[in-house]
Amino acid sequence: MPISMYQTCVPVLVRALTNLSGVLAKGAAHAAEKNIAPEVMLHTRITPDMFPLARQVQIATDMAKGAAFRLAGQEVPKMDDNESNFDDLQKRIAHVIDLLKGFKPEQIDGSEDRDILLQMRTGDMHFRGQDYLLGFVLPNVYFHATTAYAILRGAGVTLGKMDFIGKP
Fold first, then answer.
1. What is the pLDDT along the chain (168 residues), one digit of tens a residue?
2. Residue 36: burial class (beta carbons within 10 Å; 0-12, 13-18, 19+)
3. What whole-number distance in Å separates Cα of residue 145 and Cα of residue 164?
């Protein structure tokens, strides 16, 4: 049986964000245990030219949210990107997961050939639905979730592969 656009989108992104939430929870616990100011952790980055932890989470959630809305042919809701602590980031992740879970398969299935236009700072990007999901959204969500994981791991948070992958 072929896999549908909905199955490739919503459950996959919900799982990735759920796992990201767990990774962040461990980061918050580590910061509290080691008396590290949360804002220090949230502004930590791997290298000076990469975004810090908080922005990695914002981008991962924006990508996930945008995917479902665009594939369903709906306007993507805006978020303020003003999270200043771990609780704010957790609320953001939970909100996006709730938005994703609000979609029904019939809203997203059949969107393989939907025209998707992204207006980026560097210029417009044009996609067909399936290419957008498989070649742009999923790699971006995993990149930013992985980078968040790596930032926390580099800061000494005890994390393992299963924290990132999660339980099936």
1. 578 999 999 999 999 999 999 999 999 999 999 999 999 999 999 999 999 999 999 999 999 999 999 999 999 999 999 999 999 999 999 999 999 999 999 999 999 999 999 998 999 999 999 999 999 999 999 999 999 999 999 999 999 999 999 877
2. middle
3. 8
Alpha-helix runs per DSSP H in 34-166:
38-42, 53-71, 86-101, 105-108, 129-132, 138-154, 161-165
Two tokens, residue 157: 């948070």
> Which residues 6+ apart lie within 8 Å of 22 measured at CB?
163, 166
- Give the Cα separation of 22 and 24 in Å (integer): 5
Q: Tokens 């008396």 label which residue?
A: 35
Distance between CA 53 and CA 94 in Å, rounded? 17
CB 86 within 8 A of CB 31: yes
Tokens of 81: 């990107």
pTM, rounded to two decimals: 0.95
Domain ranges of the chain: 5-160
Architecture of domain 5-160: Up-down Bundle (1.20)
What distance in Å separates the CA atoms of residue 66 and residue 77, rounded to the nearest whole number? 8
